[in-house]
Records
---
Amino acid sequence: MGNPVRVVESADVDERARIGEGSTVWHLAQVREDAVIGAECIIGRGAYVGPGVVIGDRVKLQNHALVYEPAVLEDGVFVGPAAVLTNDVYPRSVDPDGKLKRGDDWHAQGVTLRQGCSVGARAVITPGVTVGRWALVAAGAVVHRDVPDFALVAGVPARRLKWVGRAGEPLTETAPGSWRCPRTGERYTETEGVLREDA
């Protein structure tokens, strides 16, 4: 038998949610119906996982992170404290007639976080955005367009400042278009604004 799921008493986990073995859901977190959480994940205190959200293995949602449906988080993703993954391009509480909007009155657009990427504390990712593999979104950034693989973005609106490797540290340029990770020694090549790992 594998590692058991741990859900603390004050957490609110819908019975239709699926949680992988070895995962922990901490105090006051809410996991909604039909959400899927992979193995060995940590859902921090006060975090929110919306209906039908899909989360891969070994993902960390820090305290008060908000992940609205239909977001997809691939394996190894990190979402920092109080970060928000939004889903409504044109948010309104009421329709043009002044009636309270309901679920059928709008179309949710989820955020996609690719393998190994990280989103810093209090960052906001707008609807429909994809953050690429191993990218790093700085704390407090507002991301309104897709982030390339291995990019470090920061600011409001977020802009690419540097390249980062799998270890999360900024890469060092060793020659035009050639990059190296100072921690692991891994090498990367940049071509037309796209960074790829060397074979």
Note: The first strand starts at residue 6 and ends at 7.
---
Amino acid sequence: MPDPTHSPTHPAAAGRVDIRLPWWALVLPAVAFVALLLLILNPADAQAAAGDPTLAHLVERLKDLLVP
């Protein structure tokens, strides 16, 4: 005897996608982005920042543009 097929109790609406993200799925990437941006904008705090001075000049110019 074959098993009866079960139909969904709430059929999906045609042409509509309903995706819900938890709050932390949006907050965590934003916090990580801000933290990395702050680290880049303040290179004086980096202890091992010896390297190409061109990158340091670029970061300083970006900092000057972003911070009034």
Note: The helical segments are 24-41, 53-66.
---
Amino acid sequence: MTTPPDEPFVAATADVSDRASIGARTKVWHLAQVREDAVLGADCVVGRGAYVGPGVQIGDSSKLQNYALVYEPARLGRGVFIGPAAVLTNDEFPRAANPDLTVKTADDWHAVGVEIEDGAAIGARAVCIAPVRIGAWALVAAGAVVAKDVPAYALMVGVPARRIGWVGRAGRPLERDGDDWVCPATGERYRETDGTLHPLA
């Protein structure tokens, strides 16, 4: 039996809660788990073994590669890329037990989330330590550890992550041209003001 063209596809081995909302044409692949009240937009891809926590929101055309872990209450914009085995955390002070060694319950801690704006990309095995915001179209390199907010269009590398340049919407590092920054792939021009990059009309 074929799936209607606008229906989401969920692999037989995926675990998707009946309370999750899966958008049109979204694909959830083998062994992925999508928890209750998670909302995935249209045209998303959730790779093998990926995890989407309760109430997580993911915008249209986003992609979670294999074994990416997105813990609640993360919020992802449209066109966000989460690389293989990347992790978005949710606990500022992680402990399995309370100081008296009783097991922690949901009432014993406050979940904090990672927010990722439209078009941003998180490389393979990168870790975003909540609470943190990743600006639109930013690029976090593979293996980086992000512990502070990231400006839009920033190119972030290292542990802890630091900005080493700017990227355009095509994901390519921008090149300096006088007062402007230029994308070598698209020719789009940007200007930096007080540590913030803005596209020029």
Note: The domain at 9-167 is CATH 2.160.10.10 (UDP N-Acetylglucosamine Acyltransferase; domain 1).
---
Amino acid sequence: MQALLTTTLVFGVAQTSAYAFNPSSGAPVNIDENGVALRGFDPMSYFNGKPQPGDSSLKFSYEGATYYFANRDNLNKFKANPAQYAPRFGGFCAQAVAKEKKVDSDPLSYKIVDGYLFLTAKNAYKDWVVNVDGYVKQAYVRWPDIKNVPPKGL
């Protein structure tokens, strides 16, 4: 029982506390302290219907972020077209970007729109899905101006 509890706790900590949203970072991608995006989730798994944790031995770097993949097929598909499969707006909350903010997102609060992955903060998702098209249009307009600005500067 002790071994099971320890394993569960270690896995849980690896999934949540390894992520460090940095409000002072001017990086255009929402990454943890090790440069990993999506809290280690496989970006291709979103397009397959359910986010899955990636394997750190199957990784690829794109635009200053490292992405992990659940299998080699997903890694190869991403490598072939990373601009299509990397989360829009660097993985920051799409609703916040529409409001000229860079806010941490929850990798389980997402939607595929027109073949692209958009993430939101957990508490923003319900409002965001009511007006996805409007928020996406606003976010595309505002992203170039805030892309390299630290979140605390917005």
Note: The longest strand covers residues 55-62.
